[in-house]
Amino acid sequence: MTLSDDTLRDAIAALPPLRDVIARHDLAAKKSLGQNFLLDLNVTARIVREAGDLSGAHVVEIGPGPGGLTRALLASAAGSVTVVERDRRFRPALEELAAVAGGKLRIVEADALDTDIPALVPAPRAVVANLPYNVATPLLIGWLRRIDEFRSLTLMFQKEVADRLVAGPRSGAYGRLSVIAQWRAEVDPLLTLPARAFTPPPKVDSTVVRLRPRRDREDVPFAAMETVTAAAFGQRRKMLRASLRSLGEAEALLAEAGLPPTARAEEIDIAGFVRLARAVAAQPAKG
């Protein structure tokens, strides 16, 4: 049964408070799974608003836990909501939510790291998630590889990780993640939440970031960009002519990319890394 938007919002508003749901199902957060619950429904509603246009989108949420953000997503204009949760303890609470969602909510019991997220739902796709801290970066890298398959990614990270995502050259936070994220996507920090906003509170603040496919980017093989940034930032205090030695004739590669051999990784902008990755990809295969 498909419910009208107003009927669904009323049904969600009538649900018991999240703290009651957690207590009734004995859903203590597991530190080993990086779980920190966001229980303030005003905050979860704001995150969904900040995610931008979700109308008609098939939204995937990773690690919904007791379903606080899920409630806000169901109340939005999204066409459907699919939650991916590996912790089976949350299944009963999520089933209660599905029971009032009129077919809009689908529950997938799986580990997001082993799940082909774009295969779960048709386009247009979006991900909105309070990511478990211990898997946030590898999940993001995988999605950046396939960023054109998403309308947007609205994700919560530790503030330190979010700072790296938006950092520019010549800053201490600028690194591999900065380059790959900004090459593939438009990256916008949306809001920062203090640790006390979560239950249990983590040791750090968190920032919600929205990433949308960059339509004007120059394409080079993703693997080449990963290789170049790993070498360059793996020895970030060294000059590039030294840190890139493992990739071949470093000075020739740098000349091809129009970069000074005495520069360090933190001084090179996104366009410079694109040229360098292109030069690396154009090398003859070894062996």
The beta-strand count equals: 9
Low-confidence stretches: none
Radius of gyration: 21 Å
Helical content stands at 25-40%
The helix count comes to 13
Arithmetic mean of pLDDT: 94
- Overall morphology: elongated
Q: What is the terminal-to-terminal distance? A: 61 Å
Describe the sheet with the most strands.
7 strands, mixed
Strand order of the largest sheet: 4-3-2-5-6-9-7
Beta strand %: 15-25%
Task: Please state the structural category.
Answer: alpha/beta
* Helix and strand pattern: HHEHEHEHEHEHEHHEEEHHHH
Topology:
Layout: H1 5-13, H2 18-25, E1 37-38, H3 41-50, E2 58-62, H4 68-74, E3 80-85, H5 91-99, E4 105-109, H6 117-120, E5 125-130, H7 136-145, E6 152-158, H8 159-166, H9 176-184, E7 185-193, E8 198-199, E9 206-213, H10 222-234, H11 240-243, H12 250-257, H13 270-281
Helix pairs in contact: 3-4, 9-13, 10-13, 12-13
Explain what you see.
By secondary structure, the chain is of the alpha/beta class. The protein has 13 helices and 9 strands. Strands 4-3-2-5-6-9-7 form a 7-stranded mixed sheet, sandwiched between helices. It has a two-stranded antiparallel sheet with strand order 1-8. β3 (80-85), α5 and β4 form a beta-alpha-beta unit. α3 crosses α4 (68-74) and α12 packs across α13 (270-281).
